[in-house]
Amino acid sequence: MSAKLDTLIATRIRQDVQGMHAYAIQDSKGMVKLDAMENPHRLPPALQKELGERLAAVALNRYPGARIDDLRAALARHARLPDGFDLMLGNGSDELIALLALACDVPGASILAPLPGFVMYEMSARLQGLEFVGVDLTPDFELDEKAMLDAIALHQPAIVYLAYPNNPTANLWNDATIEKIVEAAPGLVVIDEAYQPFASRSYLDRVAKHEHVLLMRTMSKFGLAGVRIGYMMGPAALVAQVDKVRPPYNISVLNAEAALFALEHEDVFAGQAAELKRERALLQSALKEMGLKSWPSDANMILVRVPDAARSFEGMKARKVLVKNVSRMHPLLAGCLRLTVGTADENTQMLAALQSTL
């Protein structure tokens, strides 16, 4: 870089941003890609053709309009939106998380979440200049009830995030503990159900009991990671306030049409989710037979502890299988890899690659 560019960066880019690391995406070219909790199944050929024809007819010369409202209505039906609630869309859940930090940036505000957890909760707080308070889970990756309640009392956070199930640990937490946290929270509580298609239960039936709780979901794990549709539900008056900071036209007409098409064929995606849950059970049994410790999963991923995480990760990568090495993300994750549940063939390749590194 030139001296002029160095000076420009040093004087015009926030100091904290200069010290940050960008969100890292692994190169997956030529790999069996099992690192990002994507649905491994593509649309059947007949539906691919039908979707292509639908997308070809979209008016790309116009800004997104009423079709976005059609998508909101379709998602409201799909999610069984409670009476008195409204729904807002984001360019993936990541945008919704960023918009929440922006909307709740009042003097002295902080954001609180359990750790290890989804990295975007902390990143969104820091990018908005807010304090982030992380509260460690127990060694078994359960919520530490006392530590959470103490932290809430001390910091009075503007937002508490609870991923249900959690990433990267894949587990659902104790419902009674969640209710105590919800009752104690002085600000918003955001229940992040990104992995709901694979979970044994949802917070949806309880969300209407609380005026300060928002429920967030995504179509990424539904099977549309490339379409980037996240949505957030909550009391209409509360959602309306957050929606004020949403950029206009944040959902493209192509993404909206693809999402609407998928919801018209939700039985296909439900079948894929059911298959992945069956594969998840087979993976967990195989890992146990290999003598490895893995944790219960309500998502399309499994957290497993191996003797040497770096060795296993690199060995699997050398055999063209890409997983996620989370062993350095948090002390509680020492020695852990996060395995995405793939197709039967992909899982067979993953297990063989893992076995070869042990």
Query: Biggest sheet: strands, sense, closure?
Result: 7 strands, mixed
Number of helices: 15
Number of strands: 13
Mean of residue pLDDT values: 96
Low-confidence blocks of residues:
none
Distance between the first and last residues' Cα: 44 Å
Name of the CATH first level of the largest domain: Alpha Beta
Please state the second-level CATH architecture of the largest domain. Answer: 3-Layer(aba) Sandwich
Beta-strand share of residues = 15-25%
Helix content: 40-55%
Structural class: alpha/beta
Based on CA inertia axes, which overall geometry fits? globular
- The largest sheet has its strands arranged as 2-8-7-6-5-3-4
Order of helices and strands: HHEHHEHEHEHEHEHEHEHHHEEHEEEH
- Whole-number radius of gyration? 21 Å
**CATH level 3 topology of the largest domain:** Aspartate Aminotransferase, domain 2
CATH superfamily of the largest domain: Type I PLP-dependent aspartate aminotransferase-like (Major domain)
Counted up, domains total: 2
